[in-house]
């Protein structure tokens, strides 16, 4: 029997809503598999009514489109007013600083482990939000992070950022690279996957799945592809994702005369992602900044498809032990073009599909990650309450 009850505060009920949501649900499933006697209570907002989403350990707080004050009120009401709530035997793991905010007055007694998935205010600033909103988000981050008993980051790059930008003590921060669901993301026949997606069989395909915002590097990727397209007439670039840059990207693709070779696929359902990785000759992650881990990197490798990444954030940490040659020389369009051209010309040493899969199965399973995370929860709880 575990000495504590674990409260996990996430964002949304649907793991396909983004990387943080996928991490939240996959981690919790991993924790349940390795510690079946651990009492885990998961709080989140959903797309349906709460009653429709209740399950053992699940606590739907309401619809995700509720007004923000209402959501914050529900978080405080449902967690702190739980009949058996006891700050002396509860560990709270939060995954989004805003949703930890309503619990602030009680944090002095509660063991609080913060999963840091990225600098919320900095990302908003890069996306062009006004300075007042960015300042408000920064304030929320600092208020919440002061209460952390321990922190878990997705990479050493984000560990360093948390220490340097937020003043968190280094000994409190633990970098644990996330994992991938290898029962979903696994190799399959490339031709069959292309038929399933209605992708051309006889073209080489570069695949990228990213939100269409500036820091994800899609502009640089399209420019890079445009500069090498004439040398590799059998190659197509397929980009999955939504975002405010779509109109500009469509115009850019048209002006380059690449309308028949660059596809913006729009939203790709989570259920179709494995087939997309399986169908591609290679994936690419062209991030420009604030990339903590890049879950798409490991998802692609798990499907046996190698990945080219820019040397940004935690991306090199993921790929370097397997294939240093897959790290592009830089994040600018000409540097991405250089790497793409080398791959397409057969000048890069690439890992075989079996090597990619073996690497993921050895280092990036959720059981392995859940075990490391649970150790930190236990240590934080013991330290908080003076146990050895």
Plain-language structure description:
With 388 residues, this protein is of the alpha/beta class. It has 2 domains: 195 residues, Glycogen Phosphorylase B (Rossmann fold), CATH 3.40.50.2000; 174 residues, Glycogen Phosphorylase B (Rossmann fold, 3-Layer(aba) Sandwich). Helices cover 41% and strands 16% of the residues. The chain is globular. The two termini are 18 Å apart. The model has no long low-confidence stretch (mean pLDDT 91).
Characterize this entry briefly.
By secondary structure, the protein is of the alpha/beta class. The protein has 16 helices and twelve strands.
How big is the Rg? 22 Å
How many H/I helical runs? 16
Q: Which CATH architecture of the largest domain would you pick? A: 3-Layer(aba) Sandwich
Q: What general form does the structure show? A: globular
Please state roughly what percent of the residues sit in beta strands, choosing from under 5%, 5-15%, 15-25%, 25-35%, 35-45% or over 45%.
15-25%
- Residue share in helices? 40-55%
CATH superfamily of the largest domain: Glycogen Phosphorylase B
Name the CATH class of the largest domain: Alpha Beta
Distance between the termini: 18 Å
Low-confidence segments, ≥5 residues, pLDDT <50?
none
Order of helices and strands: EHEHEHEHEHHEHEHEHEHEHEHEHHHH
Strands, helices and their partners?
Layout: E1 5-12, H1 19-34, E2 40-46, H2 50-53, E3 58-63, H3 68-80, E4 90-94, H4 97-100, E5 111-116, H5 120-126, H6 131-145, E6 150-153, H7 156-166, E7 173-175, H8 190-197, E8 204-209, H9 218-228, E9 235-240, H10 246-255, E10 262-266, H11 273-279, E11 282-285, H12 295-302, E12 307-309, H13 315-319, H14 333-344, H15 353-363, H16 366-384
Parallel strand pairs: 1-2, 1-4, 2-3, 4-5, 5-6, 6-7, 8-9, 8-11, 9-10, 11-12
Helix pairs in contact: 1-16, 5-6, 8-11, 9-14
